[in-house]
């Protein structure tokens, strides 16, 4: 065969890859290949393979600059108080957690070497040795105990105080062993501690302005509401990481301005852009889009304890009236995955893929509305820009209702005050829920009978019992089975309609490499700085 390569070795592959890194032209590379015994056709294959290898091989060096969409003068470097994406990004660059979620939603160890329990109530955590804080102090069990106990102190104002409240006992068994005791069994503890707020800080820390953590970067500059600059931690415990020399993070609230900053080269990365900006980038060369569907959703909530939701046939009719495909295509401009009326998204390992979404069926919807005695009556539906794409969704559902004689009065209200005045209160209204890492957190927050955010006032003793049972099981297969049943119960019985899981889109220079999706959100679950590199 004319494209056969003779005497070609891995060393020759490495030689070509090194030449690419040095900036050799294609002509020079082909000459090199021909000299090594490769025909033109085979040379192209080798060249393509080498180019891919170079692109996938991390490169050290470079200064990375990214822009988020939100900032505040209340921006903080205290992980317990983190509330905006900007806080999460900065904390992820400066600190580490005991565990983290990988791209597949599986819990991996980070500062913890192992997490063990026989009863899901008492947990033994073994810490990695040889980990140091930026100030040179060794990581010990005392740091972990201090970091976790902070969340129980009301004076701290932790954003995860309610989640942390289940931890009732902390003990430093020795320098590298921590024992955590829970009020009740919870097999999700290792996953819960992967949340951004549970970053580990040094024992006794009260001043967080220095960002003293064990993370991949060391703080240089922090201006709340403006920017932060961090530089490579040369003593980082993860070998070879980070790849970047420095990372600067700013906020540009206007979407168009954020994208224009990317196009002009002022930044390398523009977080969370809208569909209009996607069209602008499509006409430019040298840029890419990263899509993450991690569980954020906008839902239509029908309170079951108020009219018209107290009539079960009205709720059933609304579920058949929602055209999920059209909502993804039109309201979300294709940036979403069809939902099946329950909150555990496909990004979660416990997602029930066998539960099919309700089909759009106006005839069935009309039947149920007639049975409820509501066909032709005007039903208020409250929507707002505060709940992502809810107004567009409402208009689509309203039009479908009009076709069968169902009058849905879409009441558009201001964003300001929406969450205080309408969410959880109006008989029919929209909500917007951010990703959570476990079904237990989602169900406890949104669907248990005593849930603080029970959007449809769903009450079920069976559901509550299953929630407690699944929480304490260490058998993952059994938990998945129970969570599957609970997702079906929500889809069939609750008054929440979840038509789609919304995708987040980040825009970046083609020179930025290593970006992957993560179930905790865009920007690799806000931890991108540690893993990205800039192509030479």
TrEMBL record:
Signal peptide: none annotated. It is found in: Periplasm. The keyword DNA damage does not apply. The chain crosses the membrane at residues 29-48. The keyword DNA-binding does not apply. Residues 108-451 form the Solute-binding protein family domain. Keywords: Membrane, Transmembrane, Transmembrane helix. Belongs to the bacterial solute-binding protein 5 family. This is ABC transporter substrate-binding protein. The lineage of its organism: Bacteria, Pseudomonadati, Pseudomonadota, Alphaproteobacteria, Hyphomicrobiales.
């Amino acid at each position: 065969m004319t494209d056969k390569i003779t005497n070609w070795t891995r060393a020759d592959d490495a030689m070509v890859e090194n030449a690419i890194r040095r900036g050799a032209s294609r002509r020079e590379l082909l000459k090199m290949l021909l000299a090594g015994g490769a025909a033109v056709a085979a040379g192209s294959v080798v060249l393509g393979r080498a180019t891919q290898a170079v692109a996938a091989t991390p490169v050290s060096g470079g200064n990375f600059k990214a822009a988020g969409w939100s900032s505040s003068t209340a921006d903080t470097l205290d992980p317990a108080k983190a509330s905006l994406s900007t806080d999460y990004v900065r904390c992820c660059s400066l600190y580490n957690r005991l565990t983290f979620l990988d791209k597949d939603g599986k819990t991996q160890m980070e500062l913890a070497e192992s997490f063990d329990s026989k009863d899901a109530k008492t947990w033994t955590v073994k810490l990695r040795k040889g980990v140091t804080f930026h100030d040179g102090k060794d990581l010990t069990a005392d740091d972990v105990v201090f970091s976790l106990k902070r969340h129980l102190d009301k004076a701290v104002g932790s954003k995860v105080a309610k989640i942390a409240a289940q931890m009732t006992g902390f003990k430093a068994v020795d320098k590298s062993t921590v024992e955590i005791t829970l009020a009740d069994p919870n097999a999700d503890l290792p996953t819960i501690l992967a949340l951004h707020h549970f970053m580990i800080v040094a024992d006794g820390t009260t001043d967080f302005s220095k960002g003293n953590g064990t993370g991949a970067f060391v703080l240089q500059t922090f201006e709340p509401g403006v920017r932060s600059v961090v530089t490579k931690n040369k003593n980082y415990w993860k070998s070879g990481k980070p790849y970047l020399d420095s990372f600067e993070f700013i906020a540009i609230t206007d979407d168009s301005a954020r994208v224009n900053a990317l196009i002009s080269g002022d930044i390398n990365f523009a977080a969370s852009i809208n569909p209009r900006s996607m069209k602008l980038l499509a006409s430019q060369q040298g840029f890419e889009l990263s899509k993450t569907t991690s569980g954020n959703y906008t839902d239509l909530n029908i309170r079951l304890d108020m009219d018209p939701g107290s009539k079960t046939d009205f709720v059933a009719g609304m579920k058949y009236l929602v055209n999920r495909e059209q909502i993804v295509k039109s309201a979300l401009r294709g940036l979403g995955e069809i939902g099946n009326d329950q909150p555990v998204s496909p990004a979660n390992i416990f997602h029930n893929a066998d539960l099919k979404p309700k089909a759009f069926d106006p005839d069935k919807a009309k039947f149920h509305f007639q049975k409820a005695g509501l066909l032709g009556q005007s039903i208020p539906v409250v929507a707002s820009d505060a709940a992502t794409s809810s107004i567009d969704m409402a208009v689509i559902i309203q039009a479908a209702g009009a076709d069968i004689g169902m009058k849905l009065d879409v009441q558009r209200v201001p964003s300001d005050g929406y969450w205080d005045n309408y969410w959880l209160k109006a008989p029919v209204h929209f909500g917007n829920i951010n990703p959570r890492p476990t079904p237990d957190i989602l169900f406890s927050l949104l669907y248990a009978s005593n849930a603080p955010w029970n959007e449809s006032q769903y009450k079920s003793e069976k559901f509550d019992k299953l929630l407690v049972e699944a929480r304490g099981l260490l058998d993952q297969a059994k938990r998945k089975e129970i969570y599957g049943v609970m997702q079906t119960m929500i889809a069939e019985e609750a008054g929440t309609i979840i038509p789609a899981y919304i995708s987040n889109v980040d825009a970046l220079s083609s020179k930025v490499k290593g970006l992957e999706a993560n179930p905790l959100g865009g920007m690799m679950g806000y931890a991108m700085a540690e893993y990205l590199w800039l192509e030479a």
